Structure formats: C-alpha cells, structure tokens
Fold:
Amino acid sequence: MATEEGEINQNPAKLCRPRRSSAESASRTWVSQKAEKKTKEKRIKVILKKSEEERTEEERALLETSEDVVAELARRARQRQCVKKKMEEVEDSAEVLAVKTTQLSEAISQARHLVVYTGAGVSTAASIPDYRGPNGVWTLLQKGLDVTTTSLVDAEPTLTHMSLVKLQEKGLVQHIVSQNCDGLHLRSGFPQDALSEVHGNMYIEVCTKCKPENVYTRLFDVTERTAKFRHDTGRKCHRCRRSLRDTIVHFGEKGAVDQPLNWKAGIEAADDADMILCLGSSLKVLRRYPFLWGTDRSKALRPKLYIVNLQWTPKDSQATLKINGKCDEVMKMVMDRLQLDVPVYQRSKDPIFSLAIQLKSTELKTFTTKMLQLSDMCNNNTDTQILTDDLKPVCDEQLVATSPGGDTVKQDRDSKDDVKLCTLKPGWFGKGCRKRVVKRRRSSQVSIECVKEEVKEEGMETEETTSVPVSQPGQ
Structure:
C-alpha cells in the first residue's frame, strides 16, 4: 500500500487517466505496427535502389529476413508499370489504320441498328481537353497543376460530330449516347430525340418541379455557380418561379433530370443494337452500365463492339475491332470509304440559337461567363438574346485563372502570352477530381498525424512507467 501511495504521489496523472479498454489497446497496437511496417518498407525501398556492391551486410540480412516485404514492393512496382502503360497513347501505323478503317466502314454499312457511344476524345480536336489522357483534366489536377484551355463556348463541333450527323441522316446511325457535357452534339444538328447526353449539357438548365420538366437552353455555360451536390444556377423557372438546376452529373452522383440525359431512349436503342461504336472514350464509366452492353443476351446475340481510342480500355478484349487512332482521322477515312461528304459546321445554322430561351431583365447579371454569338448578325438583330448590350459577359475583357486551391486571378487580355487561353473556372469541368484529391490528401495527413500522436503517447507512457520508483527487496 505504501508503495502504491508513493507511486500515486509521484505520478498524480494516474488518478485522472481512465483505464484503457482492450479495444483501445488493440487499436493502438495496430497503429504502432502499421507505422513500423511503413518505416521498414521505406528503408527496404532505399536498399533496393542500391547495387549489390553498395549494400552493407546489415542491409543484405534485412532483405533476406524480409522476403515478404520485398515481394510486395515488387508487386506494387509491376502494378504501377501496368497502369502507366495503359495510360500511354498509341497510334496504329498508316497501313494498319487503312485496313482497320476499311473494316469499320464495311461494318457500319452492314449494321442493322448502330448505336454510338462518345467520350471526351471526340472533342479534343475542338481544343477541349480529355480527362484521362497524358494532358487530361484528371491527370493534371491529380498532379496539382492548373488546366488551361480555350473558352468552352468558343469550341465548335468537330469533323467527328459532323460525320455522325451525316451518318444519322443516311440512316446508318440510330442513336448516340454521349458522356460529354460540352453540348457539341446538340450544336452539330444531331436530333435531340436520338441523343442521350447521360452526363448532362453545360447549356441546359431545367425546372424539376414542373411536370413535365421545363427545359431552358441557354447560350452560355449555366454551371458557373454549381458543383457536386449543389446544382442551383441562380435563375428561376418562368412558369412556377422555382429554382432552376443544371443537368450535370458529377462523379458519385445519379442523374436527377429527364432531359438532356434521355436515358429511356438510350436504353431502348442499346436493346435493339446489333453494333456499338465507341469513339474517344476510356469506357471506365460507361462499362458500369450493364444495360448498354446487351449483357442480358447470350454472347452470340450481343452487339458487335468497335472501339476507336488512343488508350487502353477495359472493353478491348471484348471488341471485334480496336482502332488506336484519333477520332477525326479515323472518321475522315471511314466517310471517304463510305463515299459520304462530311458537312461543314456553320454557326449561322447552329440549332442552339433557335432553341435558346431569352433571358428576362432580372436575369441579365446572373452569369459572368462568355456567351455564344452570331457575329454576322450582330448589326441586324436586336431581339436575339445574345445581342443585348446588357448581356455582354462581365469577364469578356479578362481572363480568369483558378488555381487548384480555388483562388482566382484576373488577367488582362493584353498580358503576355495570354492569347485565348484561360485556366478553367468553376463549373462542371474538373471539380469532382479536385475535391477528391483534396479529400485524399487530408485523409492521409490525418492518418499520419494519428500515427505520430499514438507513437508519442506510447513513448510518454513508457517514460512515466520507468520514472515510477520500484520498491527494492528489503525496503
């Protein structure tokens, strides 16, 4: 008793420290072991980088006794190399491309019901970056770099977009399922009833309170104020006065609007398809929709799959034909073999101008992004939405730069090397990735801090234990 009282008097902290449960002790032990394992892995990584002659006897002994760790590090290295290889862009030679495009054109002409799935690769020729390419949005943001591009409103339908319009007119393409939000399929003149923009359209906002939904097509990017799980655009429905929302489906979200997603028509088209042509898509998202691939049919009755993409896709092994090439180059050769002329995009015939809903006077200052304009009509039409002086975009004379942290910097157009490039401002483009990266970094930092704190506490407890005098025999 005297000894215990003496210990308490010398270490009063023991009075207020609660007894640790077995679960807490196990958790602390696990954290400590994990920290030791990471430290050991780091040390072995350094040793493996050395040549055999440079390693000491102690280091050789450590490698011999840690064969499981060495094998795990080797497995991770192979996995990283495999992922890196899949990210590489590969182009078929001219001879191979000629043979493959001939096969593709024959398949298109013979198809009974052709459905086309398009991704970001069909818009790269319009100076819109893709997502997972070497200079893609996700790739750059994950590295903490800014994403620079021309204004998305300045982009125009590419040769691929216009080729698909021609193929639809000739009855060779029945439907398009697009992952793109840039609105270029709509602007190319492709019929809306044969188009499913399953991730939304940057030009369209809707009222979900009205039945049927009231759709508002605009001449500017309506997603300026929106983000993941936050879709109000700041404008009101002209019919019910409820808030309008954008149509963008971010990663981790489910589509909540009927149009322009048009899932019903897309699924019906996929059910009837005997051929699927994938253009410029990594298919890492679309592969998750089993109803688009005819998986409910037997293998013999499933639609034949043709893929045009520069990178590896998870559907390559199932494809009848995989073409490693740029979409515009491939479609130009296909159209030549089908003896079809590719129509030229003309802004004066862009259907978005006839579809656009005119803004009310109270809505004129609800956006700052650039608007689509018909330059050849500017002096003749004063009733068109885009020609109102009050509707000139606030940032028309400036470039807006946004860093990965979210800070905005305005730059004058006269500044050096600005040209028409600007760093992507808030909107649908790249937001999801930035949040995921920040979250991942924060979680890793928290884990590191927890480990440090746990180790520190264990050390303090050890010091406290050793500082308590132990009664010697005979005292």
Q: What stands out?
A: The first helix runs from residue 2 to 10.
